[in-house]
Write a structure and sequence with these properties.
- With about 110 residues, this protein is mainly beta.
């Protein structure tokens, strides 16, 4: 949560679905819910691309999260395609937008 800018104009389109949320109050609440699900998870990332230009930068990566279900000891795996946009603040780079969606196989319509 320290990586996020604490601002009213940050956004998240989270991997669990739901509306695009805006502002730290809303996003902070969402991140706490996600942390409860993934608190004892194993994260693997594959960086696809990064770029910095001036005070903005972005990161594109795959994330694989392996975690245990609260209902039983079953190991579950989630794969996401991630795009994050960063802005340089006085105290370092901060996330100002994150978009995650399930990394599904491409199928033509």
């Amino acid at each position: 949560m320290e990586l996020w800018a604490k601002s009213d104009d940050i956004t998240i389109a989270g991997g669990f679905g739901g509306p695009i949320e805006k502002g730290w109050n809303s996003i902070g609440t969402r991140l706490k819910k996600v942390d409860a699900v993934y608190s004892h998870a194993d994260f693997q990332t594959e960086r696809i691309e990064t770029k910095v230009k001036g005070n903005l930068g972005y990161l594109i990566q795959h994330e694989q999260i392996t975690f245990s279900s609260d209902k039983n000891d079953e190991q579950l795996v989630r794969n996401y395609r991630i795009t994050m946009i960063f802005e340089k603040w006085e105290d370092g780079w901060k996330i100002i937008h994150r978009h995650a969606d399930p990394n599904m196989e491409w199928k033509s319509p």
